[in-house]
Amino acid sequence: MLANLLAHPLTRGMDIDSPETTHLRKRIIGAKPFLRRIYQEWYAAIAAGVPPDGGGVLELGSGAGFLKDYIPGLITSDVFPVPGVERVVDAHDLPFADASLRGVVMTNVLHHLPDPRQFLREAARCVRPGGAMVMVEPWVSSWSRLIYSRLHHEPFEPEAPEWSIPETGPLSGANGALPWILFQRDRAQFEQEFPEWRVRDVMPFMPFRYLLSGGVSMRTLMPGRTFTFWRWVEGLLRRWMRTWAMFARVVLVRTSAAHLG
Known about the structure:
Elements: H1 2-6, H2 19-31, H3 33-48, E1 56-60, E2 75-78, E3 87-88, E4 101-107, H4 116-126, E5 127-138, H5 142-151, H6 178-185, H7 187-193, E6 197-205, H8 209-213, H9 227-236, H10 241-244, E7 247-254
Parallel strand pairs: 1-2, 1-4, 2-3, 4-5
Antiparallel strand pairs: 5-7, 6-7
Helix pairs in contact: 6-7
């Protein structure tokens, strides 16, 4: 009931799997100063994790964002046609030559992919040794379990026994806990199955600001002028992000291990 009450009026009743909804969310990000500053932070953090040269950089799920402002020459893509996006791409079957990319980047995309193993194999094929996969994704903590399970429309299942996600729709199909499952809970299994990817960094962060911004589907709960204050508050909690984080930046580096294909 609370989630319905807080729903953004522009997205209430919209089909989450529709390209029109994704395009509308781009407009929402632009109209919400608090939220736009969050994306600016995310994009700067993603860009910092990508090698400076040696091939193109592919973004998955570009539809609502503006990461191209931070990575010149970025190849934008989405799972369906969206205005301003260059290519329609299936992450499980990437249309790029072996070792042709220096990076694959994404924001809140991995936890929607039905077959993460197939995606990780494809990304390993396309990214050159020394290249990187950089993402900002939901994360599991005591705080985020409470928020994602009660205020978010997407499934959030930290106890899911499998990595795969039921195929329902490109955005409605999800497990928000999947990145944490891969790179925290099942990290030893991930490293065994995918020696071509080395986990360089996992940085849990941002317990409050995205929630207060309302994200792309809820009303803003705080005015834009409070953004700096809330960033300061989160800074005070930096040592306790295992308890408080709602997101994490994850950086994987492509090793010289042979692709297992």
